[in-house]
Amino acid sequence: MIAQAAKTWNVLQFVKMVEHGTITFSNIYQRSYVWDKDRECKLFASLVESFPIPAINASRHTAEKKGDPGVYDLLNGKQRVTALTKIFGGEVRCQNLWRLRLNPEDPIDLTDEEKEFLKYGEEYDEGQLIHTIDVNGLTYNELPLSIRTVMASRMMRIEYYDNLTREEERRIIINANSGKGMSAIERTRIEMRSFETLLRLSKHPIFNCLSESAIKGYVNEDICLKMWIVLYTEDPSLETKEVRPLARTAIITEEQMKEIWSILCRLEEIAKRVDKPNVKKRILARLHMSTLAPIVKRSINDQISIEEMTDWLSHFFSGTKRASINEKYNEAARISTAQRGSVRTRLHELEEAYENRFGKRS
Fold this sequence. Notes:
By secondary structure, this protein is of the alpha/beta class. It contains 17 helices and eight strands. It has two domains: about 5-180, no CATH class; about 185-360, no CATH class. The strands form two sheets. It has a five-stranded mixed sheet with strand order 1-8-3-4-2.
């Protein structure tokens, strides 16, 4: 039976052990370093905000000399440990990070000048006062000493086995990497600042029509997030590469949540009144729902009745071979649909059709 032991060191100790050669990455099964800048920055954020860093596994090769600690050859965790060496070496300049929350238990004492440098702020979370800072554009070496000190003191656990055979190393690595990785949308969900608010919106009854597989694929959450983007960002893009960093930092206010909820309520009432199943399906499609959000919001402000909106949308989405009767809209709903230009075209064509029908009331 393979015996396992464990030790816990601060992250700076890990970095020093890599530099001194007592932690190595020589295992033949280790993949090369693949983390991108965003992953490095997220680890940086975890160090500032005091979030736990997962344990790593190693094979310890004991030394012949008494008292020599031996060498810890990592079986996993190369990405994390390499990123740590880059962070503490001043090689990681932060980007695309949300405002980081300081742990009130950390001994961080900032001068007025340092607070101004870090755009120090305050916010409330469930009634608790939270202090926040902005580290975008900065490296570890450029941070105030008190923050560098707490970052370096974060603890990480190493679980190790003495003198494993090559086959034992292989089996441990296989078992450690047998889980299914997160999809892009799963990763986006857990990174969102306003995830709980988005979750509340996604429970709206309008989404009861979605299939079980669609719910498992978070289609309802995706629609709500893209509605927010279309409503509250300038010249929106719905491409994943732009949605993900935006979702991480976006704060959906209570007022915005209520506004989106009212839009969903109106869309639900419209869908109930649509006679033709194919037209109803188009109105409730993921692409069209997010595109419709601004014009439905406008119809509420303009006090257009639900009956009038039902008639207009039923006509607009009554295309025979394509979704709508508007060719420019159809083309923008067919090719590169998430790109900024396509989103802009769909919004423009809907607004123009709305004004042709109802006039400029607002």
